[in-house]
Design a protein that fits this description.
CATH superfamily of the largest domain in chain B: Reverse transcriptase/Diguanylate cyclase domain
Largest interface: A-B, 55 and 64 residues
Strand order of the largest sheet of chain A: 6-4-7-8-3-9-10-11
Helix content of chain B: 25-40%
CATH architecture of chain A: 3-Layer(aba) Sandwich
Structural class of chain B: alpha+beta
Low-confidence stretches of chain B: none
Number of helices of chain B: 16
Structural class of chain A: alpha/beta
Number of strands of chain B: 19
Radius of gyration of chain A: 21 Å
Distance between the termini of chain A: 80 Å
Number of strands of chain A: 11
Helix content of chain A: 25-40%
Mean pLDDT of chain A: 82
CATH architecture of the largest domain in chain B: 2-Layer Sandwich
Shape of chain B: elongated
Radius of gyration of chain B: 35 Å
Number of domains of chain A: 1
Low-confidence stretches of chain A: none
Oligomer: heterodimer
Shape of chain A: globular
């Protein structure tokens, strides 16, 4: 065997086509466009990295999915879909989390924790603890810069606790590829959001697509002009 | 039923109580305990004994014999505390215990023998209870409490129930073993009394003529003719332990070892009662600083396990700065409650090992209690008041009636509304909120959903003065 080749391989510098990582278990209860383009839906566990400006609907994109995860049924009582069994954690949210919105969306407020850490180290520590505890199915973390080893720790913690960690970041600049399960880049769209999949574990890249939110939130979409309205003709003088 | 008593005598209780991180460490130094009233040595450890130091020596003589000597003043308080601890442990196997301050315990045996078939089995269970404490002690049974004490202090170490043997053993005791003051002893020797037997042969009436009432009382109690009054021990409801460290500790890392020692005791305390606690009060006494460091460690779920509490305490210690060396630690637990098993899904198994309550406790220990909040909904119409935070898992009250299904509410609110500086287009509204006129916080606002040119969704409002404010963001 070629020693140089072997050495390179042992250093994990060579990528082989059969090394593709396993696709994750997908949860199919989000938006139709999203589920379709993500080959099934958002992952059930791991880290999702979302790049988005604040206030364009980034949280609304994952809310149906979160509700599905938090209300996930127990095996011995499959009919019990009425009680929320798991907790949701917000870590370092940019503003105060509005309890009215959570209640409107039928999330049990007493099962929601909001953590205000005093440093980014504490934020990551809290995220790790929540993820691996097994009682929080979803941890939403607002964080600026993350390093590869930090994401790896979060990923492992999420696997241990069968939880999902969603990172929200406003920075748009390109950086090192992080070992996340899924990375999305969001931009505003009149009917909802434009989604670009930057990275998806076990799948090939796809073109950007838009998610229509008018079914869930008709109030938060720009009304489309009816098709039969024509622009008023302007007389041209030649 | 014939009376039978057991006396446990701990001759070097203070020395045994001193905490040492490891046994080897303790064996390196010669440690002696000196009575501050007359500067005579009253307790000696093994190393000191090998260098020739004996009980009753003066401090000066001891320092000549060994140059590496640790001298500690005798404190009966420490011994009594330890005595209560031992009584607490023995209470699990025997019912009637009386504390004989500062270093002895009376156990009433005769009523316990119904439970433990014979004396041997009873003594075995007492011994098992004492063995983990690693104390040195001597013991003896007696037909009266004072007879047991007399024999135990002589170091007889006998467990017998035959009264004639016991009486004989007492009678054979030399006069010096009887608890008389020097003057009485001199008087007795002068009239030719050398052992207890000589004294007992004289009728009490005759003794009462020549000697004082103290001697007569003592003798009556020794023979069992008089009753020796005593109050029996009842275990306390709360846990309170004080641990003096042999060495001053300045590092928060190293302090976990003695804390673990205390927590282990707490674990046994709670386990035998099948109880849990939610809060520990820890006090560090610092050298040269009068104000001790006090802090509490909390667990929402309630725990008794050492490892769990140690983890929480370690997290708490990360935020604590020691200003001076710590010489003693106190652990207090005031409230305990009966343990009720947690219900878990049998088929799903446990993926993570912690429950939500445990998680909250852990987060609170590290980040501070104020950092963990849970959103709550208040019964009001003013957006600032409806959406507020409370301490986590405080109460489960979701006001279903208060949820307005037609309203659309932002996911994030600003702490206080800010003047709107951007150009926005109004998409939905107005929704008038006019409330609070009854408590001087009156507000009249027209809320709109607005969209900026960058595609962000804002929750804005207009005041009656036509001023525009940004209040929330629809994320």
């Amino acid at each position: 065997m070629n020693t140089t080749l072997h050495e390179l391989e042992s250093k994990r510098l060579i990528w082989k086509a059969r090394q593709t990582s396993e696709p994750y278990n997908a949860c199919m209860k989000g938006f139709e466009e999203l589920d379709e383009n993500l080959n099934g839906g958002l992952p059930e566990q791991g880290v999702i990295d979302i790049h988005s400006p604040l206030g364009i609907g980034e949280l609304r994109l994952i809310l149906p999915y979160l509700r599905e995860r938090l209300y996930s049924q127990s095996l011995n009582n499959p009919d019990d879909k009425q009680t929320q069994r798991h907790s949701l954690v917000f870590i370092a949210p940019p503003m105060r989390v509005n309890s009215e919105m959570l209640a409107e969306f039928k999330l049990v407020l007493s099962k929601v924790l909001v953590i205000h850490p005093s440093s980014s180290q504490e934020a990551l520590w809290a995220a790790e603890q929540c993820l691996k505890s097994g009682c929080c199915k979803a941890v939403l973390l607002w964080h600026k810069q993350l390093e590869i080893h930090q994401v790896k720790r979060l990923q492992l913690a999420a696997q241990k606790g069968d939880a999902i960690n969603i990172l929200f970041r406003q920075t748009q600049e390109s950086e090192l590829s992080l070992p996340v399960s899924l990375s999305l880049s969001l931009s505003p769209h009149e009917q909802g959001l434009k989604v670009e999949i930057t990275k998806q574990k076990g799948h090939w890249p796809k073109p950007a697509f838009s998610v229509n939110m008018s079914k869930h939130w008709p109030e938060l979409t720009v009304k489309q002009r009816p098709n039969n309205v024509l622009p008023f003709p302007v007389a041209r003088v030649s | 039923m014939e009376q039978l008593w057991l006396y446990l005598y701990f001759p070097q209780l203070q020395l045994d109580t001193l905490f040492t991180a490891s046994k080897d460490n303790c064996d390196e130094y010669a440690v002696i305990i000196v009575d501050p009233s007359n500067h005579n040595i009253c307790q000696v450890n093994e190393v000191a004994t090998t260098s020739g130091i004996q009980k009753g020596m003066s401090l000066g003589a001891a320092t000549l014999l060994s140059h590496q000597l640790q001298v500690l003043p005798y404190q009966s308080e420490t011994e009594v505390n330890k005595l209560y601890e031992i009584a607490d442990l023995l209470y699990l196997v025997t019912s009637d215990i009386a504390i004989d301050k500062p270093n002895g315990l009376f156990l009433r045996i005769h009523n316990m023998l119904n439970l433990y078939d014979n004396l041997e089995a009873y003594w075995q269970s007492i011994k098992n209870q004492l063995s983990p404490l690693a104390l040195s002690y001597s013991y003896a049974t007696g037909h009266s409490p004072l007879a047991a004490r007399l024999l135990a202090k002589r170091g007889v170490n006998n467990i017998l129930s035959e009264h004639h043997v016991l009486k004989n053993a007492v009678a054979n005791s030399p006069l010096t073993c009887l608890e008389f003051d020097d003057k009485t002893q001199q008087k007795l020797t002068r009239v030719g009394i050398k052992t207890a037997r000589d004294l007992m042969q004289i009728p009490l009436q005759d003794l009462a003529k020549r000697f004082d009432i103290i001697l007569v009382n003592y003798l009556g109690r020794l023979t069992g003719e008089f009753k020796h009054p005593m109050t029996f021990y009842h275990p306390p409801e709360s846990f309170d332990r004080y641990l003096e460290l042999l060495y001053d500790i300045e590092d928060t890392q190293r302090i976990t070892a003695p804390i673990k020692h205390l927590l282990k005791k707490l674990e046994t305390f709670l386990k035998v009662r099948d109880r849990l606690t939610q809060q520990l009060d820890m006090t560090f006494y610092q050298r040269d600083i009068d104000i001790p460091i006090k802090f509490t460690v909390g667990s929402e779920q309630g725990e008794y396990l050492t490892d769990y509490w140690l983890e929480l305490t370690a997290l708490k210690l990360e935020n604590i700065q020691l200003e001076a060396a710590v010489f003693a630690i106190q652990l207090t637990v005031h409230q305990t409650f009966v343990r009720s098993p947690e219900k878990n899904d049998l088929f799903e198994g446990k993926k993570g090992a912690t429950s939500l309550l445990q998680l909250v406790s852990r987060l609170q220990a590290k980040l501070g209690e104020e950092a963990i909040r849970t959103p709550v909904m208040k019964d009001d119409f003013r957006p600032e008041i409806i959406a507020s935070y409370d301490s986590p898992l405080a109460s489960e009250q979701t006001l279903e009636s208060n949820i307005q299904p037609y309203a659309i509410r932002p996911s994030f609110l600003l702490e206080a509304p800010q003047p709107l500086l951007e150009k926005v287009s109004l998409i939905l509204g107005p929704e008038r909120v006019d409330s609070g006129w009854w408590e001087n916080q009156s507000l009249t606002r027209d809320y709109f959903v607005a969209r900026t040119s960058k595609g962000q969704w804002y929750w804005v409002f207009r005041t009656p003065e036509s001023q525009w404010y940004l209040h929330g963001v629809f994320s």
